[in-house]
Amino acid sequence: MSETVDALLPLSFLEAVRNIDSPVEDFEAELVGDLRNKRLGLSETVYNQIRRFNESVKRGHRAPIDEARGIARLLGRRPDAEAVFRVAGRHLAEESYRTIGMLPRAMMRILPSFVARPMALGHSRRIARRYLNASISRVGTHVYLEVERSVTQDSAPRSVGCAYYEASLKELLRLLVNSVGAVEHVRCATRGEGACAWRAEWKPTSGAQE
User: Fold this and answer.
1) Residue 155 resides in a domain
2) Residue 206: inside a domain, yes or no?
3) Which of 3, 16, 29, 99 is deepest in the core (most CB within 10 A)?
4) d(C-alpha 135, C-alpha 59), whole Å
């Protein structure tokens, strides 16, 4: 059986490029049509792919990892590839965060850190496993995200694709416990260091105490 990823992952790529390529202001109808012909994110192909992946997400279907990698390589050719990957990473974090019930979300924000953090760690592990094919662990005051088979590896020069996972982790921790700590890329498969790994500071929520 071929390897797969959650359909939200390739969907996040396409939603990001559509967001970045969308006009900021109102334009004349003919100008919008011209932009559609020039900007990938406004193309009919991307629109149809977004619709298809949205349907897959609703049905809980997965997508072939090779298809997700193909989209990542396409985006990696853009001069603004890093910005696209960061927007995509934040989009995945936001959408996966919404799969957590409203009550647990509120509890993680208002309870003391010694109670909220284990809850947040459990949810972050589930999200990483399901949506990123990754694992999350805690060591002391840091959280580690490890990705054995990065979808964005070699998608762009200078490990630009790694920004996707960095942005996902940082945004997810912000949403879960309002963490604003730094995220560091501590290992990279592109550099021949095995799996990719990121280390994030695990800071307490605002107003909550250890």
Assistant:
1) yes
2) no
3) 16
4) 24
Kindly report each contact of residues 36-42 with a partner whose C-beta sits within 8 Å and lies 24 or more positions away, as own/partner. 40/74, 40/78, 41/14, 41/17, 42/18
User: What average pLDDT does the chain have?
Assistant: 88
What whole-number distance in Å separates Cα of residue 134 and Cα of residue 95?
Answer: 17
Tokens of 91: 């989009």
Q: pLDDT tens for residues 24-41?
A: 655 544 444 444 445 777
- What whole-number distance in Å separates Cα of residue 175 and Cα of residue 160? 24
Contact 165, 188 (CB under 8 A): no
Where in the sequence is the domain holding 64, given as residue range(s)?
4-201
Say how far apart CA 37 and CA 27 lie, in whole Å.
15
Could you give the residue ranges of the DSSP H alpha helices within the chain?
8-21, 29-38, 44-59, 65-76, 81-97, 102-110, 113-131, 163-177
Asked if the structure places residue 87 within a domain, the reply is: yes
CA distance 34 to 28: 10
In a domain, 16, yes or no: yes
Q: What digits encode the pLDDT tens for the residues 8-18?
A: 999 999 999 99
What are 135's two structure tokens? 């694992």
CA distance 36 to 32: 6
Report the 3 state secondary structure along 142-159: EEEEEECCCCCCCCCHHH
Number of domains the chain is built from = 1
| CATH number reported for the structural domain that contains residue 14 in this entry | 3.30.1380
